[in-house]
Amino acid sequence: MASIRVHTISLGCPKNRVDTERLLGVLGRGLVPVESPAEADLVLVNTCGFIRPAVEESVDTILAVLREVEDVNPRPVLAVTGCLVSRYGQDDLRADLPEVDIWLSTRELEQWPGLVGAALGKKKLDALGPRRISTAPGYAYLKVSEGCSHKCAFCTIPSIRGKHVSRPLDELEREARLLVEQGKVPELVIVGQDVTSYGHDLGMKDGLKHLLDRLMPITGLKWLRLMYLYPAGLTDGLLKHLAGLGRPLLPYFDIPVQHAHPEILAAMGRPFAKDPSLVIDRVRKHFPEAALRTSCIVGFPGETDAHFKELKAFVERTRFHHLGVFPYHQEEGTVAAGLPGQVPQATKTRRKNALMKLQERISRERLADMVGTRMEVLVEEPSPEWPGLHVGRVWFQAPEVDGVTYVSGPKVKPGRMVQADIEQAQSYDLVALT
Fold this sequence. Notes:
The chain is globular. It is about 35% helix and about 20% strand. The protein is α/β, with parallel strands linked by helices. It has three domains: about 5-120, 3-Layer(aba) Sandwich (Rossmann fold); about 140-370, tm_1862 like domain (pyruvate-formate lyase- activating enzyme), CATH 3.80.30.20; about 375-434, CATH 2.40.50.140. The longest helix is centred in the C-terminal third of the chain and has 24 residues, at about 345-370.
């Protein structure tokens, strides 16, 4: 195949990035990445449409690309994919942005290669994979499922990506082996809208256990990280099984609890609606050393000062390693959008800032305990701050969402794992020396 110059922009979550990488993989050896849309034959914008700010970012990105290629002749093919398309539909978007050549929704992932190939005048883009990794050296995402079958009152994902559909075990094992054994990727990060539900739709009672049994023995896999663990899915039985696995599985738990007060959790439609402390205690019973990440929504309809006070006290007690805080957005088409007691934006912002200030102190205190220890660091890329300094991560830092570890010294190179002494702790980051 002749070379195809491609400029890609992937917005939103890691699951979107995987979709982008799979499409790029179809272009094969002929793909030539370029830095500017104006240099490209194909510009691919993979959008997010989960909440209003993401929709606005997606539209602004498309408009920026169109401005950049306005005077280019011949103009590159512009393909817009992802959740924005799935949420609002091709017809409405095409009416507003007729300059876009192809609109591709997440409901037609298998058709992306053929549609893009036709727009480029190619006939060989007829199957997905293998992926072309776009993350920093050292790690890759493995998306194990598509969609979500939960009915959280605030969430647009089921309407955008459909019900939960697990990928077959054989397919996932094959892809993982390609990434680790041939791509020399030491860390796999497992993602899905609800990883604990993996395999349920395939008739597997313990789908996640079966998946890990396939992945754990892969030669060269050093770290295996689980993200998006739905609280109700973290049963004693599953946790006991995970505790018996050992490395490369990391004792890292990303559990989006969303809130702590039972009244707000019930209004959100969360199945684990009584006390999220129960799942935290359950995890720590099996993994005393666990690193915990969560996300919380502040300003959900009906949230009072008393409700927020309980959420803040929960965060103080739990002392998460990592915390994301998001102000509630009133999204059209969701149950929560019609609930009474919508909270003013200023109140949401104040509560978010208060929670993040608390978490900054907790994180700073936790990281201070690491100073003087020796830890394994996965090196990702050189830091622009000064020559010899690199950006990496230790085991309790997930890519893109957590803090980082700045590391320098002999043998520090992107993609490598090095032993380093933790010399300094900041609010969210570490500094290490080999």
